[in-house]
Specification:
The complex is a heterodimer of chains A (812) and B (198). With 812 residues, chain A is α/β, with parallel strands linked by helices. Chain A has 22 helices and 16 strands. The termini of chain A are far apart. Classes of the chains: A alpha/beta (812), B mainly alpha (198). Chain B: Part of a membrane-bound complex that couples electron transfer with translocation of ions across the membrane.
Chain lengths: 812, 198
């Protein structure tokens, strides 16, 4: 087998490796922690959606969260146990913020769920295999956690020339991949074969740094044994040869163009951990629930590699590796170059956690204070992406993000080589990260504001269309109404003439006018409302337009009102002349109407005053217009008030002229009373009939009494009595001109006295029954209470009647 | 004499040719609309909140193009003022407090059990971000909400809260480093400018 040609990339550094410490001990397997914290966002893209509820029992490997969209992943229970909570917990993130996590309390059994391996992956369609991988929750385990199935799909864009397996592991301290290759060489090769089946690349190369001889030996012997086509390319140790783009450059000599992905130049790159996870998933049906992680650093007495369940808290691992809290000064997840400081050891291991570095103060001293850039250019020499770190620093510092972008800021892989070599200890990468996130934020804000603009414009277009439609309708109506109004105008003077014949016609006319007026007013109200709305929303064009409409409408309404007043005036005079009796009614109506108008006008004044105040507050340009409106409205209100006072003074006159008139008004009342009387009588009859019926059916008295009819009868009788009393008093008063009201009163008093007596008798009766039948005590007591109430009512009525009788007698 | 006339003739001919060319270009390549207004509008945050005193962002952009101050936009804050200053080549001035203060990004949230379904907030929302119908509970589409506050006042039952959008792990961004540390300014003797007298 011919060795692959190794190229080189620009820059790079040689930091102290510090890999030996964690390789002294064999692979460890920590015990189950008391709880597993499984964040829903362990990968790039949308967070997963939980499938379980608090309290659910889950088995090891069971799906507990599913993907949420295309760029997302599944999540599985790392062991069997109970879901104890789904809540915000601190997560492994440079921000030190919390995110939603599923908390799993292990039951200690570690019972596997039924595993369904994909044994026929060779014959199945590739899409199905990819879907299966997605369901197994497999993501890139090198660092970013890019969902593997998405990466594999992307690889189908172009025929692949190279399938590169990244085993470089260039970052100091980390040996997890090294240990994985030693422990699981066969699984790795088989996993690579599965992936090669899926992507069908021309060449499959494992890129590995020359500082891992044991792993290289294990792989080459395994490849020989299996007679695999996989090649092992040993690259010189240099940071950051494990960067995807750098490794591609090392192995193929090709550079991934700026802003593109390796797939665009026919290359696919996967981490060794991912390959093993794919093998486990396909062959055994095991989802991604554990990973290899390096525990290292001077603060640990037993630095080593562990195969750890996802969700295990870092504190549990520190305990396992015998940490010395006194020595521990900085806890880092990831390597010293690209990792981030953890503020708390409570955060869990996730799919992308390759190392926990518990560093002592001596090992990782706090960063030296930043000094001024001396333009030495060492950063440029070190940059593996061939950027100009110094230029980028200036632009980042001065917030000139556009220029930074022009200098390809987004090609920076944040490897930290520039910061490492900087003699002024400038945290260059931090500046770049800040700039990148600022630019991203600005982009997101632009997208959002564009969307808001779109929606605003769409809304405005819709509102304009609605307004135009309304305007068209209004114009159509306006065309129809003025002709009517004109007709009436012509007709009004003629009909308002105080001729005898004109009287009924005038009322007709006023009716029509009233209808028109009502329509006009409602229109006016609508317009005013629109205007108010427009003012609130500050649509300038609409406001002026609506104001015009409002004033127009107001004029029209005023005109109608004038006409109405004229006809109304004409009507009473005409009526007075010939028919004095019905005259008061229209006058009354008019007064009522005038009062209502006045109220409306006053409300309008208030409204306009309010609008004025508001306008003054915001110093709107339409203050003058609103003031004008206010004046108009006040004028109208004053006019109406005057109008109200004038006819009011005329009323007494008309009333005196038509003294006999009240009888006609009273006639209605009498009618109503009579109807009530008839109803009451019918009620009494019905009740009596029912009682009769019951008696005929042979029921004894107590049963009859128990039924509701006697009560009803008494009630109906009472009502009838009252009504009759009223009727007689009224009719007597009216017809005989207060001849002998005391007669009727006497009658009624008699009746009431009878009612009182009846009620008293019934109470006595009931009391007796209570004595004879104590078992019905409750019911009878109730009856007694009811009757007593009735008695009181009757007595009260009686008292008032007697009082009125004495009064009338005194008056006499 | 002839040469002078010739020179004049040539110059006249040239000026006519170029004049015609410019005139043609003026007609042929006329720019529709006002590009500066578009550019200003693109920098404004498009909350359509009206805090600047204009009915929307575009009217304010037009007003700026006509000489209004660039510091009337609280939602945009100092960043927008800076961007506008860069665009218009004027001095970046602090935000005018009369129009409001710069606040953290917020979204409207309707306390749904208190909503009476009056649709007043729906009518007030400039970006149609409130969902609901008459006598039905309303809700705010958080992704579309610009946090303009315009729905808060019309609500007759005061059931709309403006809630600050907190930072999540997804929206978090790296801080800018502190810059050159104060201690490092004293490292080089010649850099020490203070206390020379000692």
């Amino acid at each position: 087998m011919q060795a692959t040609k190794i190229y080189s990339f620009h820059g790079g550094i040689h930091p102290e490796e510090n890999k030996a410490q964690s390789l002294r001990l064999p692979l460890g397997r920590p015990s189950l922690p008391s709880e597993l914290i499984l964040p829903l966002g362990q990968h790039i893209g949308q967070s997963s959606r939980p499938l379980v509820k608090v309290g659910d029992k889950v088995l090891k490997g069971e799906t507990i969260a599913i993907n949420n969209g295309f760029l997302s992943s599944f999540l599985h229970a790392s062991t069997s146990g109970t879901i104890s909570a789904i809540e915000e917990r601190l997560i492994a993130h440079p921000s030190g913020l919390s995110d939603l996590c599923i908390i799993l309390a292990p039951d200690g059994q570690d019972t596997w769920t039924t595993l369904e391996p994909l044994n026929d992956w060779q014959t199945l369609s590739k899409t199905d295999v990819l879907a299966y991988l997605s369901e197994m929750g497999i993501v890139g385990m090198g660092g970013a956690g890019f969902p593997t199935q998405v990466k594999l799909q992307g690889a189908h864009k172009k025929p692949l020339s190279h399938f590169i397996i990244n085993a470089a592991e260039c970052e100091p301290y980390i040996t997890a991949d090294d240990m994985l290759m030693r422990e699981k060489a066969l699984e790795l090769i088989l996993g690579i074969e599965i992936l090669q089946h899926l992507v069908e690349a021309d060449k499959v190369v494992i890129g590995i740094e020359d500082n891992k001889p044991a792993a290289i030996d294990a792989l080459t012997s395994m490849i020989k044994q299996r007679d695999s086509k996989v090649q092992v390319a040993v690259v010189p140790t240099k940071y950051p040869s494990g960067g995807e783009k750098q490794l591609i450059q090392l192995l193929t000599g090709k550079e991934v163009p700026s802003g593109q992905h390796p797939a665009d130049i026919g290359i696919l790159c996967h981490n060794v951990g991912t390959c093993v996870a794919v093998y486990d998933a396909i062959t055994f049906g095991k989802p991604l629930i554990s990973r290899f992680t390096t525990l290292t650093g001077d603060a640990l007495k037993a630095p080593q590699n562990v195969e750890v369940l996802l969700g295990t808290p870092v504190s549990h691992l520190l305990e396992y590796a015998d940490s010395e809290p006194k020595k521990l000064s900085r806890l880092i997840m990831g390597g010293p170059m690209m990792g981030f400081t953890l503020n708390s050891a409570a955060v869990p291991i996730v799919k992308t956690s390759n190392c926990i570095l518990a560093a002592s103060k001596k090992e990782l001293p706090p960063p030296a204070p930043e000094q001024a850039c001396i333009r030495c250019g060492m950063c440029e020499q070190a940059c593996p992406a061939s950027l100009l770190p110094q230029q980028l620093l200036w632009f980042s510092k001065s917030q000139e993000f556009e220029k930074a972008e022009h200098h390809n800021l987004f090609d920076c892989i944040e490897c930290g080589a520039c910061s490492y070599v900087c003699p002024s200890s400038i945290p260059l990468v931090q500046y770049y990260r800040h700039s990148k996130s600022s630019i991203r934020e600005a982009r997101e804000a632009t997208v959002k504001s564009d969307l808001a603009k779109q929606r605003f414009e769409a809304r405005k277009a819709r509102q304009d269309a609605e307004a135009a439609e309304k305007e068209a309708k209004r114009l159509a109506r306006q065309k129809a109404t003025p002709s009517k109004a004109a007709e009436k105008k012509k007709a009004a003077p003629a009909k308002a003439a105080p001729t005898v014949a004109a009287a009924p016609a005038a009322t007709d006319e006023s009716k029509k006018l009233k209808v028109d007026l009502a329509i006009g007013k409602s229109k006016l109200k609508k317009l005013q409302k629109q205007l108010l709305e427009a003012q609130e929303n500050e649509h300038l064009e609409e406001i002026s337009n609506l104001q015009l409409q409002v004033t127009e409408q107001e004029k029209a309404v005023a005109l109608l009102e004038e006409q109405l007043a004229k006809t109304a005036e004409a009507a009473p005079t005409a009526a007075e002349a010939k028919v004095p009796k019905p005259a008061p009614a229209p006058v009354n109506d008019d007064i009522k109407k005038a009062k209502i108008d006045l109220a409306i006008a006053k409300a309008a004044v208030k409204k306009v005053e309010k609008a004025l105040k508001k306008a003054e507050e915001i110093q709107a340009p339409e203050i003058e217009a609103i003031r004008q409106q206010l004046k108009e409205a006040q004028q109208r209100a004053d006019e109406l008030e005057n109008a109200l006072v004038n006819p009011a003074t005329t009323i007494p006159k008309t009333e005196t002229t038509a003294q006999a008139a009240p009888s006609s008004v009273d006639a209605d009342m009498t009618k109503k009373r009579k109807i009530d009387l008839a109803i009451a009588k019918a009620g009494v009859k019905k009740a009596e009939k029912n009682i009769q019926l019951l008696k005929e059916q042979g029921k004894n008295e107590s049963e009859i009494e128990a039924s509701e009819w006697p009560k009803k009868l008494i009630e109906a009788q009472e009502k009838l009595a009252v009504l009759e009393a009223e009727d007689t008093t009224d009719t007597v008063a009216k017809s005989q001109a207060k001849a002998e009201p005391e007669m009727d009163l006497a009658n009624q008093i008699k009746k009431e006295k009878i009612a009182v007596a009846l009620a008293k008798a019934q109470i006595n009766k009931l009391n007796k029954r209570l004595e004879s039948a104590p078992e019905d005590a409750d019911k009878i007591n109730q009856d007694i209470a009811a009757t007593e109430q009735r008695l009181q009512r009757a007595e009260a009525l009686l008292a008032t009647l007697i009082h009125s009788q004495t009064n009338t007698q005194e008056n006499r | 004499m002839f040469t002078v006339l010739l020179a004049i003739g040539i110059l006249v001919a040239l000026s006519l040719v170029f004049g015609a060319l410019l005139g043609y270009a003026n007609v042929r390549f006329r720019v529709e609309g006002d590009p500066i207004v578009d550019q200003i509008d693109a920098l404004l945050p498009q909350t359509q909140c009206g805090q600047c005193g204009h009915p929307g962002c575009r009217p304010y952009a037009e007003a700026i193009a006509n000489g209004e101050a660039i510091n009337h936009c609280p939602p945009g804050g100092q960043a927008t003022i800076q961007a506008l200053a860069d665009l218009l080549d004027v001095e970046a001035i602090p935000l005018d407090g009369d129009h409001g203060t710069e606040t953290a990004k917020r979204v409207a949230v309707i306390r749904e059990d208190e909503c009476i379904g009056c649709t007043k907030c729906i009518q007030a929302c400039p970006v149609d971000a409130i969902l609901g119908a008459a006598k039905q509970m309303h809700t705010v589409i958080a992704d579309e909400c610009t946090g303009c506050d315009l729905c808060v006042d019309p609500c007759p039952v005061d059931c709309i809260d403006m809630v600050e959008i907190g930072v999540t792990a997804k929206t978090w961004s790296w801080d800018k480093p502190q810059g050159i540390a104060a201690t490092s300014l004293n490292i080089i003797a010649t850099d020490r400018q203070t206390e020379v007298a000692h």
